[in-house]
Amino acid sequence: MAMITSDPIITLLNDVKPYKTSWKVEVKILHSWTQHSSYSGGDSLQFILADKTGVKIHCTCKRFFFARVKKLQLGQWRFIENFSLTAAAGKYRPTSHKYKMLILSNSNVTNSTLKDEDNFLSLTSFTEIMNGSLNSNFLIDVIGQPIDIGDIQVVPVQGKETKKLEFTLTDTEDHQIACCLWGRFAEHMLYAYKVAQVNKNFLCLLRFAKINVYKGQVQITNAFDSSTIEINPPGFDVQDYLQVLPKNELALTTGSHELAKHKGSKRQPDKWSIYPERSILDIIMATDTENCIVKGTIYAIDTDWAWFYFGCVKCHFKKSVTNVAPQFKLHLLIKDDTGETKVMLLDTIAEPILGVSAEVLLDGSLEEVEDPEDLPDAINELIGKTFKFGVYVSKDNVDYGADIFNIGKTWSADEIITHSDDENTDDTLTNRALSDRSSGQVSLVSMESEENTCLSSTPLSKRKGECEIDDLSSTSKKQCSKIMKQEKK
User: Fold this and answer.
1) What distance in Å separates the CA atoms of residue 375 and residue 451, rounded to the nearest whole number?
2) 126-244 adopts what CATH topology?
3) Has this prediction a pTM greater than 0.70?
4) Sign of CA dihedral 251, 172, 146, 282
5) Residue 127 to residues 132, 177, 435, 457: CA-CA distances in angstroms?
6) Where is the stretch described as Disordered (predicted)?
7) pLDDT tens string 267-314
8) CATH topology of domain 271-363+372-418+426-462
9) Which of 137-156 are b and which e, b meaning 16 or more Cβ less than 10 Å from the residue's Cβ?
10) Domain 13-111: which CATH class?
11) How many CB atoms lie within 10 A of CB 32?
12) Distance of alpha carbon 478 from the chain centroid
C-alpha cells in the first residue's frame, strides 16, 4: 500500500525556527533586488517577504538556485516550501525578524490564491527617529513632504563618481529630518521635484531606509538597493495630507541645506546636545563607536572595584611623586526599561553628583580599601537616583566586548542639556582614557582637570616614588562577579 502524506502545515513567519528546513509559508513579495558581489558565491537575489499578519522576513537566494525563485514576483502571494534559516545580523537589516531565510536546492515556490493588497507599511514617526530610541541597524519606512531641496552633487565614492542629493522631509507636525539620497534615488527625487513644481502634489515614501548620523546630525538615507522610493504613494490622499502640513516657505524651493530652526529657547546648545539619546540596550548592542546620552537609574555600586585611586597631579615623564591626591573612580550599575549595564566615572565627573570630593570622604587617609562594602554614605546615597549620563561607546565596547562604559558628563534626570554658561568649559567627552588593547600599551588622555594626571591604585605608603599608570578601561581585569549595595525594594 502506498504511503499517504499530508501537505505541510502553513506556518506564520513569527513561528519559523532554524531547527528544521521543511517549513511551508505563505508570503507576499514586497521588494526584490540583486546584490552584486565579487566573491566566489557571485551575485544573489534578495527579497523582503511578508505574511498575512504583516510580519516580514529577509530572504536570500544564491545564484546557483535562481531558477527556484522565478515565481517570486513583486506584489504577488506565493507559497515557499523547504528553506533554511540563519541568524539575522548586520547594519542594514530590512526587517526586525531574528532570522533570515535562505533558498535551498530543494526549495519550492508555488502560486497562492490569497488576495490582499496591503503593502504592510510600518511607518516610523519623526520623533522616534530624532530621539535616538531606535536601533539604527534596522531599516525603516518613513513618509513626508520634501522641502529645501538642493542640487545634485557628484562625489567620489569608493573610486566611482556618484550622484548625491540632500533635502529635508517634514511631517504634519512640522518635525523635520535631513535626508541624503544616492545614485538613482537622487535622480528619482530630483525628477519628482521638477514635476511637483507644476502640480504641487509631492509626498515621498522611503521604505527600508537607513537612519544615519553624519557630523552629529541624524539623517535618513537609502540603504543601497535594499531601499525603495515612491512619490505620492497609493493609499495616501495627497491633497488631504498636504492640507495638514505646516505652511513652510521652504517647501519645493532650492537653496540652503540648513534645517529650519525649532521654535523655543534661544540658548545655544552645548556640545553634548548634538549627540543622540540612547537606551542602555542601544549602547550594549552598538556596532559603531559613538558619543551619546543615556538616562539611567543607579541600582548598585560595583564593589569589586575600589571607589578611588591616588592621582599624581600634573606629573610629567614619570618623575618623583610630589603632589598626590585621592580621586574618584566610581563603578556603578545602572538600568532603564531596556536593560542594565556598568559605567565608570572619574573624579570631575563623579564629584558633582556626590557633592563632595574624594579627599574629604577619605579624611586624610592614604591607605588602600580594606573592606569594599564599607562605602561612604555619599556614595551609598546614589543608589536609587536617576541621572543622564554622557556615554562614550568606545572601540573596546564595540569590537572587544568590554561591558564597562566610560562616562564623560552627568546631568540631573530632568535637566535640559544646553550650552554651559561658562564658555571656557571644555567638553569632557573628548578628554578620556583610551586603552590600546592590541599592543597592551595604555594611552591616557585625562578628563577635564584630570589632565596630565598620572593614576595609581597603589596606596602612597606602598609606592616607591614613580607614578604607576592604571588602565582605566581594561577588561582584562576581573569582571564584576558580585554586586554590593543593591537598591532596596
Assistant:
1) 27
2) OB fold (Dihydrolipoamide Acetyltransferase, E2P) (2.40.50)
3) no
4) positive
5) 9, 10, 36, 45
6) 436-461
7) 344 578 889 999 999 999 999 999 999 999 999 999 877 888 877 654
8) OB fold (Dihydrolipoamide Acetyltransferase, E2P) (2.40.50)
9) bbbbbbbbbbbbbbeeeeee
10) mainly beta
11) 18
12) 28
